Amino acid sequence: MNVKKIKGYALGFIAAATYGLNPLFALPLMDDGMDTSSILFFRYLLALPVMAAMIVVRGKSFKVSRRQLGLLAVFGLLVGLSSVTLFESYRYMDAGIASTLLFVYPLMVALIMAAMFHERVTPVTVLCLATALVGIGLLYKGEDGAVLSVTGTLLVMLSALSYAIYIVGVNKSQLSRVPTLTVTFYVLLFGLLIFVGDIVLKQHVTIPAGVAQWGRVGALALLPTAVSFLCTTLAITYIGSTPTAILGAMEPLTAVVVGVVVFHETLTPRILVGLVLIIIAVSLVVVGGKISVHLTAIRRLFPRHRR
Angle, nearest 10°, between helix axes 66-89 and 36-57? Predict the structure, then answer.
């Protein structure tokens, strides 16, 4: 493996792992009494200058057309909705479980592409959908007989769906010709409007108090947002989108490890199997095409004998 690929895999790993650190910084802020809108408001607000600096350093442009700006507004609101619903789900279920359920968004992308753009659904995709459903079923009921919160599950599914629509929309619109960092900057900018609107309606904002809270908000803005986006962009440049997406499986794994080690969440054998099945299902969807190629190659090694 050459140096370029090693860098790409390392960056993809960092991108996924840093995004999986969301609960590590968000949960203590929630426990301290900060509401979701306030946390995300300061997260997005602090991330914007970091993303702007990345655009300048990498020589990209802030310029977009009016139509592109309109699309960015729509997708920014979708990303903001995805963030709100994910963070709210942490109030109803373990963060590791929520983050893993969120990882079904590639499966949703596959379904949207099939329904809206007539992309062929392969047998591998069908198998993966079934595997993911089994995995979610295992997560639904724990060893103690307690079931997952319906509200929390619905919030995660809404978060995943919002993000899936965003991914399809960006790839299937003229935004695909806009630099990734520029898209990210405007998405964060318009996503910020959701939290501003909620703060205005409630006429309340919780300002981080003390070094610890500001440090956690700053870490949210830097690691799961700025660093994750930058490393993802660079990883795609080095190794391509498919391997980078596969490395995204580190997101729920990181969240589960953080939940168990830091927040002492329970990891039963049933939940562990469910997590593994969901990650396998989504990973197979991402590499579905390559799997078909390899299966075809294997079949050719054992030709059928004619009688």
Answer: 140
